């Protein structure tokens, strides 16, 4: 048994679900780099698109049940944080999804397997595969299990990272942070934005997101973390 087959089996054990449709699981774990320069292989980008919606539905329903008296304006930031790429990437790392991903040797060599955006996308694709293989109940069971810690300790206690970075910069007598989109990749239905944030006197930081706003927030959070501002 090769290392990747073992990684896939470990992944199924960690999520507590064994796929009936092995081809579907394989597709969910296949990065777009596979097949570069050769016959095109079906990758996980469309599944990523579907999984994002399934995750949003499950988390929204769970939040509504946990906070029955909350207003929409109170639930929306909780939802956004729980379904963010940052949270999806964190979950992916906890289940070691990266080891099970299938990608080209060149992509692996330059560290694509460890990128937050790739791990988050793979996590969403896995959720879509769960939904297609076992129905909403299967996807819901896995999501609620993997997101249990995030529901208890996650984004509700953290202020918006862009606001925090602005306050930190101004507190040090610096101008406001500047954000710049330095790259945009992926299909129109599932783009990935790379944004660089700059603060005077500090080394710039780049981060990725599914939208410009999400990438800006991720970049701000990365700079705050690097500078020791939790």
Please describe the topology of this protein.
Layout: H1 3-15, H2 22-28, H3 45-66, H4 72-82, H5 85-94, H6 97-100, H7 105-109, H8 116-146, H9 148-153, H10 161-171, E1 178-185, E2 192-199, E3 202-209, H11 212-226
Antiparallel strand pairs: 1-2, 2-3
Helix pairs in contact: 2-8, 3-4, 3-8, 5-8, 10-11
Explain this structure to me?
With about 230 residues, this protein is mainly alpha-helical. It contains eleven helices and three strands. Strands 1-2-3 form a three-stranded antiparallel sheet, with helices on one face. Strand 1 (about 180-185) and strand 2 form a beta hairpin. The radius of gyration is 18 Å and the shape is globular. The model has no long low-confidence stretch (mean pLDDT about 90).
Assess the beta-strand content as a share of residues: 5-15%
Radius of gyration: 18 Å
* Classification by helices and strands: mainly alpha
| Main sheet overview | 3 strands, antiparallel
């Amino acid at each position: 048994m090769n290392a990747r087959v073992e990684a896939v089996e470990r992944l199924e054990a960690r999520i507590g679900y064994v796929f009936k449709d092995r081809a579907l699981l394989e597709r969910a774990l296949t990065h777009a780099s596979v097949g570069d320069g050769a016959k095109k292989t079906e990758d996980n980008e469309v599944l990523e698109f579907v999984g994002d919606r399934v995750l949003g539905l499950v988390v929204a329903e769970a939040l509504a049940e946990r906070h029955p008296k909350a207003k929409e304006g109170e639930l929306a930031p909780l939802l956004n944080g729980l379904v963010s790429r940052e949270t999806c990437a964190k979950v992916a790392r906890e289940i070691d999804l990266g080891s099970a991903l299938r990608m080209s040797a060149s992509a692996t060599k330059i560290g694509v397997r460890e990128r937050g955006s790739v791990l988050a996308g793979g996590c969403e694709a896995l959720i879509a595969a769960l939904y297609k293989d076992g129905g909403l109940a299967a996807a819901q069971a896995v999501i609620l299990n993997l997101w249990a810690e995030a529901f208890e300790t996650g984004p509700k206690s953290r202020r918006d990272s862009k606001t925090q970075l602005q306050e930190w910069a101004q507190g040090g007598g610096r101008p406001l942070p500047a954000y710049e989109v330095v790259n945009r990749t992926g299909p129109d239905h599932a783009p990935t934005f790379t944004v660089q944030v700059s603060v005077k006197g500090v080394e710039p930081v780049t981060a990725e997101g599914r939208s410009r706003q999400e990438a800006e927030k991720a970049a701000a959070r990365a700079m705050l973390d690097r500078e020791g501002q939790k």
